[in-house]
Amino acid sequence: MERGEGIEEFAEAIPRGDTAMPNGNKLELYLPITVIGLSPMGDVRFCRCIDDNSPIVMKTIHKYLVQSEDEARRICDRLNWLLTINHPFILNTRDVFQDEKNVYVMSDFCSGGSLHSMIQTFSHLTENQAKYIAIQLSIALDYLHSVSCLYASLIAENVLMDKEGVIHLTGFTNALVNVPFPYYKMIGYIEHMSPEMLLNKGIDYSYDWYMLGCLVYEMIEGILPFHGDTAKMTLQMILLGKIEYTYASPEAQSFINALLEPQPSKRLGSNLNDVKNHPWLADMPWDNISNRSTPSPLIRMNKTADPTSFCPHYKEDILEEGDNPQLYNEVFFNELH
User: Per the database record, which ranges form the Protein kinase domain (predicted)?
Assistant: First the structure.
């Protein structure tokens, strides 16, 4: 199917009611300030709400980059699903609307930056900080599994922090919702792939807990547990499963090892209570962290860098339009009511 086909179906499937407004009038409710990131199908901008000047993030999906009707349906299904999610440790989608060229996804702004940036800046975290994050992530994963979602994207770049130092998961591109297990296709990121995925044995919710093990290791040690000079070397290291530590305490090592257990049936995480009762986390105030009544031990980080410094090819690479944008305009004006 040629690029641009299936546009009519895309327009019809975008969430409607309060989440869609004809002619893109909702765009006038927000003032774009600056680009803060890029995605495969558009850009991410920091904006201000016109009515109260509050911060908000706008992710733009360019419709001309939609390759097929199936892809359009997948995008719309994911947006519909994200609008149903409301959790204190997940970046909540506030609104979805469209105009003739783009779909706009509005979400909360996390001024503390990403966990990835924090690790890069400070080399590694203290165990107290890592515990705090691990508990929030465990609660978020347990919630996602309860709504039949395998997250499959638990990397430091997808963990954002708000101004109070509370984490929020984002990046649901790889998420699997209501799929039968075991799932046999390869998804995710090479350094985080589990042995059962590499051996084509299929994955289930235990894959998320394996990824949590990789992330906890990265927080404490400053690097990923398995990272070779080449992709082949990395995959060999994952299958070998040898883990070396420099900073982690014995209790932390035990926790990480239990999450990186090669056999999914023996892996920590099948029951959240088992995670809570592990010696590394058993003395932590889970309820207080869950209801956000415990102050965050995380160091707040405010981004001050010019976004163009890490998006140098933004205009030419992202904003180039399709071969016949006028045709797309006509289609959307006819299909949107």
Answer: 35-281
The pLDDT tens digits for 194-207 are: 999 999 999 999 99
Indicate whether 193 belongs to any domain: yes
Burial class from Cβ neighbours inside 10 Å (0-12, 13-18, 19+) for residue 151 reads buried
pLDDT tens, position by position, 111-138? 898 999 999 999 999 999 999 999 999 9
- Classify residue 329: in a domain, yes or no: no
Kind plus residue range of the DSSP H or E element containing 55: strand 55-62
302-to-162, 197, 310 alpha-carbon distances in Å: 10, 37, 16
**Residue-range definition of the domain harbouring residue 83:** 8-109
Count of alpha carbons within 13 angstroms of residue 96, beta-carbon side: 20
The distance in angstroms from the start CA to the end CA of the chain is 26
Residue 68 sits in the same domain as residue 118: no
pLDDT at 274 over 60: yes
CA distances from 74 to 85, 106, 223 (A): 17, 18, 34
Residues 70 and 202 in one domain: no
pLDDT value at residue 66: 87
